[in-house]
Inverse folding.
């Protein structure tokens, strides 16, 4: 049920945090995340949301205060972008090892110096090794729903990990779409109050003292196992959310229009919306190509991808990021996909494309070009090894 | 036997357990044993960094540490969580060394002071990065040898308590392990005040200051008696010297530590003049507002 309103991605994120009853919100402003935290500030000022808003002096402190508050037993929400995420990186390594289920929005924005204010994914993908679960959302509705799911996943005692809900600055953060806001009661039923069973800091309630691990590898393996267990929990939570709210996102990977196709495009983030239209048009033209949306990048959905991969002869990964000097000049998603596919006896061909760097538009024309390249590879059985910097090509008019 | 029983009883009661990994003669365990008597058991201790961390691990209360670049900020989160849960009875102590307070986390402590976070921030100041092997910090005093200032530090020590006082926080005080009663009284007072309280203690460090570990208390007492480390408090902006000892020559303090042994007579005279000026300034301001 609930109500439907036109919400920008940042507003939807604020609604997600409010509905999840976040108790502590330490935050520092950075474009394009600012509307998110100012919406939360006004929720609190209006008395609609009961939370401690800490107006910190920088992102490093925002994450540190989040860590302290989470360890002391509060449900914590924060958000940042770009330089802010990188500035807090030292702190971002702490919550996974401390097993603190903080939820944070990473509103993607390119990094300096060859960046700007608009999005690419290098800021959040840089955090892929920290142990945070990472979701990439397409639009306001998915952002709101994923934040609620994120608490349910992170606070599951099989997991106890922080969750990053990533979405593209402007394309998702500032684009308003009709967004269903669930009833508070339904969210409360879905998401019980936070109680960490491993430890908390309240005097008299201390369960276990934090000890320095005697065996570092074992302690790290605990985190690794938790991220692996998270895969099942993500699927389970998405399904139970569907039962309660009637919306399902396919768990970690979504297949779109993949019936009877042997070649697919793989996208992440807001470009997926454009890709859906492109796939529809191409299929209307009789071209047999489908779409896979990568929703969850960490934990990487290896098994699911391998299951899908058996059906496909070609996968073309679209990377909105760069990893200078990487194998075959590949983007980060393609590198991960390649590793996951390598163990298969019968591997699909893999193509890789860089688009939308520094927040330039990912156009329908570009995605069509990519789709045709994928189909060429399907026809010839041969794929270019080097990643294709699509934006350097003159593809004519935008649309 | 009777003595052993007394020790057992003491350690049972004490919130600081024995067997810390601090160096012999370190002021850390000494400080925490005294301070915890005033802090009490309904408290959370947040702290940073290696040297401070060594002692913090032996505190029998909920403790939480991140890293020394995280001074005051984790405690800010803990205070917010307590507020969210309506637990305003719990005392939050946030400890940090001189490197954290004066250098890498200086902005964090300034920001927590500006927000008037309800916590007691304590600087445990052994005047250099001691755990990493005696490197100069912003709170290393003028002339002191460290491994990164082999010819003595060129710049003076930052006056952090005065800088924090200018944030117009409700309470700032300097303390010393050589004056346990004064130390405990100031912590007790800080506990009774709501908002950001700042305490700063210079800690004897035999390893880094180069003196006999048996003489830790004597050395820091000399610091107070020579006015190198004057004891005062600033309550609502008003300065009060809590001890006005008869002034001993600074040379007595400097000669007690090998980190100052290379100093020339001119340098010692310069330090004496600086100490005299500061002493006079404090005496002039005693009982008055120092907020500018």
């Amino acid at each position: 049920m609930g109500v439907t309103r036109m919400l920008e991605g940042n507003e939807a994120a604020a609604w997600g945090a409010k509905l999840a009853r976040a108790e502590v919100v330490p935050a520092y402003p950075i474009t394009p995340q600012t509307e998110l935290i100012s919406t939360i500030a006004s929720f609190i000022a209006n008395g609609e949301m009961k939370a401690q808003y800490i107006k910190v002096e920088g992102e490093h402190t925002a994450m540190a205060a989040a860590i302290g508050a989470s360890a002391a037993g509060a449900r914590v929400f924060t958000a940042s972008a770009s330089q802010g995420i990188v500035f807090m990186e030292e702190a971002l390594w702490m919550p996974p090892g401390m097993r603190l289920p903080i939820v944070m929005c990473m509103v993607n924005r390119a990094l300096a110096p060859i960046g700007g204010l608009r999005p690419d994914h290098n800021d959040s993908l840089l955090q892929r090794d920290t142990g945070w679960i990472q979701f990439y959302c397409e639009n306001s509705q998915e952002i709101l729903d994923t934040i609620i799911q994120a608490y349910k996943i992170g606070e599951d005692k099989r997991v106890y990990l922080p969750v990053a809900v990533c979405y593209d600055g402007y394309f998702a953060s500032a684009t308003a779409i009709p967004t269903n806001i669930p009833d508070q009661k339904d969210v409360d039923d879905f998401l019980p109050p936070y109680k960490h069973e491993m430890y908390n800091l309240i005097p008299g309630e201390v369960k276990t003292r934090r000890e320095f691990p005697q065996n570092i590898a074992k302690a790290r393996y605990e985190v690794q196992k938790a991220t692996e267990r998270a895969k099942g929990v993500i699927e389970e939570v998405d399904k139970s959310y569907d039962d309660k709210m009637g919306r399902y996102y396919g768990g970690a990977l979504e297949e779109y229009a993949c019936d009877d196709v042997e070649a697919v495009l793989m996208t992440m983030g807001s470009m997926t919306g454009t890709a859906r239209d492109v796939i529809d048009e191409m299929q209307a033209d009789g071209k047999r190509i489908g779409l896979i949306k990568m929703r969850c990048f960490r934990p990487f959905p290896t098994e699911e991808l391998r299951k899908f991969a058996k059906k496909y002869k070609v996968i073309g990964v679209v990377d909105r990021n760069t990893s200078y000097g990487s194998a075959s000049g590949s983007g980060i998603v393609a590198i991960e996909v390649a590793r996951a596919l390598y163990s298969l006896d019968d591997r699909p061909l893999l193509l890789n494309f860089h688009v939308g760097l520094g927040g330039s538009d990912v156009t329908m024309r570009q995605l069509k070009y990519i789709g045709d390249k994928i189909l060429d590879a399907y026809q010839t059985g041969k794929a270019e090894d080097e990643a294709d910097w699509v934006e350097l090509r003159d593809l004519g008019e935008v649309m | 036997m009777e003595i052993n029983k007394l020790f057992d009883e003491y350690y049972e009661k004490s919130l600081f357990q024995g067997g810390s990994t601090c160096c012999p003669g370190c002021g850390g365990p000494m400080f925490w044993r005294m301070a915890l008597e005033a802090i009490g058991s309904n408290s959370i201790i947040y702290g940073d960094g290696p040297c401070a961390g060594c002692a913090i691990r032996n505190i029998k209360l909920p403790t939480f540490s991140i890293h020394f670049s995280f001074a005051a900020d984790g405690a800010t989160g803990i205070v917010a969580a307590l507020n969210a849960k309506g637990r305003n009875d719990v005392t939050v102590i946030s400890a940090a060394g001189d490197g954290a307070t004066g250098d890498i986390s200086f902005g964090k402590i300034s920001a927590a002071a500006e927000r008037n976070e309800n916590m007691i921030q304590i600087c445990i100041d052994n005047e250099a990065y001691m755990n990493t092997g005696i490197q100069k910090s912003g709170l290393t005093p003028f002339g002191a040898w460290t491994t990164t200032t082999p010819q003595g530090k060129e710049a003076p020590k930052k006056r952090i308590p005065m800088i924090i006082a200018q944030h117009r926080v409700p309470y700032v005080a300097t303390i010393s392990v050589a004056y346990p009663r004064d130390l405990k009284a100031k912590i007790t007072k800080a506990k009774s005040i709501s908002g950001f309280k700042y305490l700063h203690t210079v800690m004897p460090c035999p390893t880094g200051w180069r003196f006999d570990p048996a003489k830790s208390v004597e050395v820091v007492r000399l610091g107070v008696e020579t006015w190198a480390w004057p004891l005062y408090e600033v309550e609502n902006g008003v300065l009060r010297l809590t001890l006005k000892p008869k002034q001993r020559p600074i040379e007595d303090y400097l000669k007690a530590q090998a980190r100052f042994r290379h100093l020339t007579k001119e340098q010692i005279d310069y330090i004496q003049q600086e100490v005299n000026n500061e002493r006079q300034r404090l005496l002039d301001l005693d009982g008055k507002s120092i907020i500018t």
Q: What stands out?
A: The radius of gyration of chain B is 18 Å. The longest strand of chain B covers residues 91-97.
